[in-house]
């Protein structure tokens, strides 16, 4: 398949692996901030191929995983109410809240539906004018434009029964928090290509300058990732601090300007809590005042809900790159995809799920 097979060529991969291992004079610590990249690295064994040259630490790149427990509980509260149709992408339904998940609400009679687009939810609202329809808007900058457009579309249709529960988070502030931490180990970042497709690369230059850490924007196929790592290792070995784009077929400096205009109209930047990490200033979006009529938190009065994270789940350390998933004592034991303690085990992009699925179980006894 074009744009897939040519980026999975084993011979080309071996050339890149050999270059990286030959070039590296030490083990460099690199963080990817994208769950899709994490799964590709683990699924294709890139971490094992580059052992001794590169240590990958997995950042907070899974939006499902960083959605705070209190937001899940707000979703559960809304979805449990009579007269509500609660819509979400499928990956949110098994994320555990304080007492249950959205599948549990559906099993108890709640009208919880999986949709493939937020515009599906607006259609459900149009078809059910006697019901309040809520879409769970979760994600990084990648999914935000479509979620923003659902509100615009609902206004154009004159819908009074469509609402958005917003839990959008932004990548650069999270990278800032990681780099500012006294426990930071990151020496180079792989930038998330899909985020940069929307937002461009301009937000990353100031991080490179402020923290003196190179960033290389990368895609998701094996050769994309290996080329990103190659450029990072070359920069690190040469002592150069630069921002580079190793994903030019999808990313440019400006990004998608039309999508950015929609985001600037519908959302405003806000402080946002990240599951397992805590509050990161100016790290998320919420609906702008002119769109407040579509705000599910205000409509259903759940904004006050705050809960404590489980002390048994160490996903916060995983999300900050301080702990490998299989170094957690609960990994593969009390925490499995069937009985997850945290979202990193149940999400399709979670690091713990990747380690479990692709059998990185060797340290599970720790």
From TrEMBL:
<dbReference type="InterPro" id="IPR042243">
    <property type="entry name" value="HypD_1"/>
</dbReference>
<keyword id="KW-0479">Metal-binding</keyword>
<comment type="similarity">
    <text>Belongs to the HypD family.</text>
</comment>
<dbReference type="GO" id="GO:0070025">
    <property type="term" value="F:carbon monoxide binding"/>
</dbReference>
<keyword id="KW-0408">Iron</keyword>
<dbReference type="GO" id="GO:0005506">
    <property type="term" value="F:iron ion binding"/>
</dbReference>
<protein>
    <submittedName>
        <fullName>Hydrogenase formation protein HypD</fullName>
    </submittedName>
</protein>
<dbReference type="GO" id="GO:0051604">
    <property type="term" value="P:protein maturation"/>
</dbReference>
<dbReference type="InterPro" id="IPR002780">
    <property type="entry name" value="Hyd_form_HypD"/>
</dbReference>
<dbReference type="InterPro" id="IPR042244">
    <property type="entry name" value="HypD_2_sf"/>
</dbReference>
<dbReference type="Pfam" id="PF01924">
    <property type="entry name" value="HypD"/>
</dbReference>
<dbReference type="GO" id="GO:0051539">
    <property type="term" value="F:4 iron, 4 sulfur cluster binding"/>
</dbReference>
């Amino acid at each position: 398949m074009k744009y897939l097979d040519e980026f999975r060529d084993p011979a080309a991969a071996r050339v890149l692996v050999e270059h990286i291992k030959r070039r590296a004079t030490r083990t460099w610590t690199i963080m990817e901030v994208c769950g899709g990249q994490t799964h590709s690295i683990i699924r294709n064994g890139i971490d094992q191929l580059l052992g001794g040259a590169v240590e990958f630490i997995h950042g907070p790149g899974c939006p499902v995983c960083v959605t705070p427990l209190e937001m899940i509980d707000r979703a559960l509260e809304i979805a449990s109410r009579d007269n509500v149709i609660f819509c979400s992408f499928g990956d949110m339904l098994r994320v555990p809240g304080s007492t249950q998940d959205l599948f549990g609400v559906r099993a108890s009679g709640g009208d919880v539906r999986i949709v493939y687009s937020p515009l599906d939810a607006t259609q459900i609202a149009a078809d059910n004018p006697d019901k309040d329809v809520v879409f769970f808007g979760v994600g990084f900058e990648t999914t935000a434009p479509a979620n923003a457009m659902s509100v615009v579309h609902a206004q154009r249709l004159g819908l009074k029964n469509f609402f958005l529960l917003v839990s959008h988070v932004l990548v650069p502030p999270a990278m800032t928090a990681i780099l500012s931490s006294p426990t930071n180990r990151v020496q180079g970042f792989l930038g998330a290509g899909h985020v940069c497709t929307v937002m461009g690369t301009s937000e990353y230059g100031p991080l490179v300058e402020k923290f003196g850490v190179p960033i290389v924007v990368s895609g998701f196929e094996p050769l994309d990732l290996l080329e990103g790592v190659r450029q990072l290792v070359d920069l690190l070995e040469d002592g150069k601090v630069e921002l580079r784009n190793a994903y030019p077929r999808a990313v440019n400096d400006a990004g998608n300007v039309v999508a950015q205009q929609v985001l600037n109209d519908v959302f405003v930047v806000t402080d946002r809590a990240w599951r397992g990490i805590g509050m990161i200033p100016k790290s998320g979006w919420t609906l702008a005042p002119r769109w407040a009529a579509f705000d599910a938190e205000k409509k259903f009065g759940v904004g006050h809900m705050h809960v404590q994270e489980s002390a048994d789940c160490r996903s916060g350390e995983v999300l900050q790159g301080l702990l490998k998933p299989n170094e957690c004592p609960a990994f593969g034991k009390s925490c499995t995809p069937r009985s997850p303690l945290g979202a990193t085990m149940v999400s399709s992009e979670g690091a713990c799920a990747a380690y479990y699925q692709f059998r990185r179980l060797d340290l599970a006894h720790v």
